[in-house]
Amino acid sequence: MTPRLLTAEPGTDPVDDLTTDTTRISGSAGRPWAAADESAASNPAVVAPLEVHPSAPIQILGSSGSIGASMRRALGETDLEVFPVALGTSVFGWTAQSDASTGILNRYADCGGNFIDTADSYSAGRSEHIIGTWMARRGNRDDMVVATKVGNHPDNPGLGPVSMVRAVEASLQRLQTDHIDLLYFHLDDRSVPLEDSLGTAQWLIESGKVRYLGASNFTAERLVEARILSAAGYPRFEALETHYSLLHRGPFEGDLGLVSRGQGLGVMPYFGLENGFLTGKYRSRADLDDSARSARVSRHLNRNGLRVLHALDLVAKEQDAPIASIALAWLLNRPGVVAPVASASRPEQVDALVQAAAIRLTRTQMVELERATRV
Description:
- The chain is α/β, with parallel strands linked by helices.
- The chain has a single domain, classed as TIM Barrel (Alpha-Beta Barrel), CATH 3.20.20.100.
- It contains twelve helices and 13 strands.
- The chain has helices at 32-42, 98-110, 126-138, 161-175, 194-206, 220-230, 252-262, 292-297, 303-319, 323-332, 350-355, 363-371, and strands at residues 5-7, 71-74, 81-82, 86-88, 115-117, 145-150, 152-153, 156-157, 180-185, 210-216, 237-243, 266-270, 341-343.
- Strands 12-11-10-9-6-5-4-13 form an eight-stranded parallel β-sheet, covered by helices on one side.
- β4 (86-88), α2 (98-110) and β5 form a beta-alpha-beta unit.
- The longest helix has 17 residues, at 303-319.
- The radius of gyration is 21 Å and the shape is globular.
């Protein structure tokens, strides 16, 4: 399913995405060439500036009045409206400590972002705590769409009824909120009947603690099973988180993609930048260090990975944009994708992430990027 796009009216709160053929922006703010034409038409003495081509990237950054505030995509068949790039927070409390994490959240929100992705297991709950403290201080809980995951925390492992309820209660306390907008099953816990996990989720939804349900790391077969159960009255999944990138296309572009589109799920790809490899930072083994990230990145330092980087380099030059922005923009042009989940370790890294929402890749650029990859 192609994500429904909503445009914010002037004066409304910031929201999400701008991509090829799919994003709309209210007013002439999204059409800089039109603004010049309208000004010139109303005042013959005004000479219109040089025209900006409609395919040029739209500036969404800035200290005030950023167009990012008028970007939103509908998440599946829910009433949630989100910025087209979700801020991943797995590094909060780990490689990004409290002050840096707060700076990252501030920068993301200032650029118009409103979609925060976390989990109860990220830094043993520290990520949720940092987010909750930030929202309380900024007073913006109602402006944010908060997604978290349960099932992987050592204190409340799995998706059994008791673990799920305890995990959600703990997340609500850390996030300093009375509800979770989108609750993911962080894993497919085969030790618990799916109807038991969904039945517990039903109670959480009816009690107002959770609004919508999502699946993370589920197979196509299990999504079908879940949809069959929803016909019997169990809550349905509205979103899917899965590994998907230019370097990892095959699993999603098979049955999983077909099922997710058929069910109208909003897809949130993770590892869209492949642990930083698709930012262009790593070009040879000399760029690696002894970190766990470098160990994960090293598997892409081969002919295929370098060929994809070369294709990204060419498109980035044409778009005058960071390589990371192009890699995320490609995902935003894929069927069913609502918002890639991407993280930053420093506030200044956020700009390249949110800029992806304003990049409109041409058909030729999409073809060139896909030609460089192996499915």
